[in-house]
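RECORD CONTENTS
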Amino acid sequence: MQEHILFYVQPFIVSMCISTVLCFVIIKTCKRIRVRDQRTNDRHIHNSATSRFGGIAIIIAFVITLILNKYLVFDHLIWAIICGGGIIFVVGVMDDLRPLSWKSQIFFQIVLVLTVFIFGIRVLYVTNPLGGIFSLAHNDFFLPSLVFMLIWMVLIMNAVNWADGVDGLSGGVVFIAAIALFMIALEPHVFQPPIAIITMVLAGSVAGFLIFNFPQARIFAGSSGAFFMGFVLAILAIAAGAKIGTTVLVLGVPLLDSLWVIFRRVRAGRSIFYGDHEHLHYKLLHRGWSVKKILALYYGVTILCAVTAIATRSFNKFVIFVSFCIVVIIFFIALSYGKTAKKELSTNY
């Protein structure tokens, strides 16, 4: 029994330790060479002197732990994650050093999905909550699968990235989601030990980063970290027997927030990549919420969604998610038309 527990605890501890050490080194190095955030503007509440290279620590810790784990076989899934992580590392750090245009970011995300697809990661079907399945591949015709993956992975990556506006927010939500996928991967009717190990490696890498990212943060995930966390969650949802519905439910708040903001921007005739204060965490900051209170809301709802995802079947998940959407949309509408308590973003912790 102890060996069985260590089978999953060990990669978590290893990745967490590597991530912690790397974050500490990056923080000290950036202070010494005085690297400043080049993308600071009226959308961001962060100190420009704080390093945005937490993603470097997360990615390196994740990849090294995968390589060191003797129980993992380097199949197409792991190679897809490592190669995708390499692309995110290069492009993400470039974006953190000098912000790329939204067109360049979308191009790189499409290349990322195509890379995963080439490695053989496919969504062959999605479960119909009312019964049966929706097939996304017919013989050798995989175009519907590719289109679905483009929408799915780009949405998840951007949802996690857009949630990275408050200290500890995106990392905390991803940590909870990784633990939820870990527990589902070990359920008797699923039982996928390799997926469980990978989710624990992700959770450990993020946990090491969160030590320095909680309010007041000394390091941020940056584009490389946010995109990588979203990328791994998106690909694991596909690899773990198409656990798309589970991931959607667990990431319900950032996903609905992203879709709501996109809807508002389209209705206003603006680009969906236009920077503004429409995201939920910004609106709550406008109304005087402290960062810790916002984290408590996000974490609490995400944990509740994770428990629900683990404990329910497809149809029940669908009913719960629809009900959740209605409640969240009402909350968004109330925030949009309610009185603003503060005109400027608060940085109270």
